[in-house]
C-alpha cells in the first residue's frame, strides 16, 4: 500500500497545476471580459496577453507548430470566439485533469484491492490522447460549419436572384437578409455579423472582391461562384438569369453527389448481405457434396 502514495502525490500535484493553469491562462475569464477584450482588439487597443500567448511569441518552435496545425484558421472556420491560446489552454487543462483523475482511480484501486486494476501508464496514454482528439474534433466542427455555410448560401440563390433583379437590392444586402432566415446561423455569423473579418479582413472595393477574399480564407467555393455570377451581371447579363443559372448548377452538383453517395450506400448494404449468404450456401451444399464424395469413393 505504501507504493500508492507516490502516485497519489503526483495526482495531487497535477490537479494543483491544472487549477493554477486554468487561472493563469484565463480559461475561467467571464464572457463579458472576453467580449470587452475582443472589442478592444478590434479598435486597435492593446490588451494584456495571457501567459501562454507570451510564451508562444517568444518560442519559435511553438509558433511553427501553430502554423503547421493552422489553428487560427480552423477556429475561425468554426465561427468560435476562442483564440489559439484559449484552445491550447483548454486542451491542456482537460488532458491534465484526465490524467490526474485516471491516476487517482488506479492508485485507489491498488490501495483497496492490493493490485493494480490497470497499469499506471494507461493514464499517461489517455491523457496524451486528449490533444489529438481535440484537434480532430476541431477539424470536424470546421468542416461541418463550412458545409452548412455552403448549403445555406446555395439555398438562398433563388431568392437572391429575385431580390437583386433590375437592381432592386445590392447582392451583399440580399445575401445578408436571406442569411437571417436560415435555421442555422453559419452564414449569418460569417456575413451579417462580420465573422469574415477574422480571416478576410483585408480591404476590398466591391462585393466581388469581398466574396473572393472569403473564398480564399474559408475555402467555400460558392462565394467565388457568386462573385463570377456578379461579374457577369455587371457586363449586361440580367441578375435573375445569372443567379438562377448558378443556383441550378449548384443543385445539379448536389444531385450528382447524392447519386454517388447512394451508390456507395448500396454497395455497403449489399456486401454484408452477400456475406450472410455464404454460410447458408455452405450449410445447404455440405450434405450434397458429402453424398457425392461418398458415392464416388464407394
Fold and architecture overview:
This protein has 298 residues and is mainly alpha-helical. It has two domains: 143 residues, no CATH class; 143 residues, no CATH class. It contains 13 helices and no strands. The model has no long low-confidence stretch (mean pLDDT 78).
Descriptors:
13 helices; 2 domains; mainly alpha
End-to-end distance, in Å? 72 Å
Element-level helix/strand string? HHHHHHHHHHHHH
Total helix count? 13
Query: What is the CA-atom radius of gyration, in angstroms?
Result: 29 Å
- The biggest beta sheet, please? none
Briefly characterize the structure.
This protein has 298 residues and is an all-alpha fold. 78% of the residues lie in helices and 0% in strands.
List the SSEs and their pairings:
Elements: H1 4-24, H2 31-42, H3 51-58, H4 60-69, H5 71-77, H6 84-113, H7 121-155, H8 157-163, H9 171-179, H10 186-192, H11 207-218, H12 221-234, H13 239-297
Amino acid at each position: 500500500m505504501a507504493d500508492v502514495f507516490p502516485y497519489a502525490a503526483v495526482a495531487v500535484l497535477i490537479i494543483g497545476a491544472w487549477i493554477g493553469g486554468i487561472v493563469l491562462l484565463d480559461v475561467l475569464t467571464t464572457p463579458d471580459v472576453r467580449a470587452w477584450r475582443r472589442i478592444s482588439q478590434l479598435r486597435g487597443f492593446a490588451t494584456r496577453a495571457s501567459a501562454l500567448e507570451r510564451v508562444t511569441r517568444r518560442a519559435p518552435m511553438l509558433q511553427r507548430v501553430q502554423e503547421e496545425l493552422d489553428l487560427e484558421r480552423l477556429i475561425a472556420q468554426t465561427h468560435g470566439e476562442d483564440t489559439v491560446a484559449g484552445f491550447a489552454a483548454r486542451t491542456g487543462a482537460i488532458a491534465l485533469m484526465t490524467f490526474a483523475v485516471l491516476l487517482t482511480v488506479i492508485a485507489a484501486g491498488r490501495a483497496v484491492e492490493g493490485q493494480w486494476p490497470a497499469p499506471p501508464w494507461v493514464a499517461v496514454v489517455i491523457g496524451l490522447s486528449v490533444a489529438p482528439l481535440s484537434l480532430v474534433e476541431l477539424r470536424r466542427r470546421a468542416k461541418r460549419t463550412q458545409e452548412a455555410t455552403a448549403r445555406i448560401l446555395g439555398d438562398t440563390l433563388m431568392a437572391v436572384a429575385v431580390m437583386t433583379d433590375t437592381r432592386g437590392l445590392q447582392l451583399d444586402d440580399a445575401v445578408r437578409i436571406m442569411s437571417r432566415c436560415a435555421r442555422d446561423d453559419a452564414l449569418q455569423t460569417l456575413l451579417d455579423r462580420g465573422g469574415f473579418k477574422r480571416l478576410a479582413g483585408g480591404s476590398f472595393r466591391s462585393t466581388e472582391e469581398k466574396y473572393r477574399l472569403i473564398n480564399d480564407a474559408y475555402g467555400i467555393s460558392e462565394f467565388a461562384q457568386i462573385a463570377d455570377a456578379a461579374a457577369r451581371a455587371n457586363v449586361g447579363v440580367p441578375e435573375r438569369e445569372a443567379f438562377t443559372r448558378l443556383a441550378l448548377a449548384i443543385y445539379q452538383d448536389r444531385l450528382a453527389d447524392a447519386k454517388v453517395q447512394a451508390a456507395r450506400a448500396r454497395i455497403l448494404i449489399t456486401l454484408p448481405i452477400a456475406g450472410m449468404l455464404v454460410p447458408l450456401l455452405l450449410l445447404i451444399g455440405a450434405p450434397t457434396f458429402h453424398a457425392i464424395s461418398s458415392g464416388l469413393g464407394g
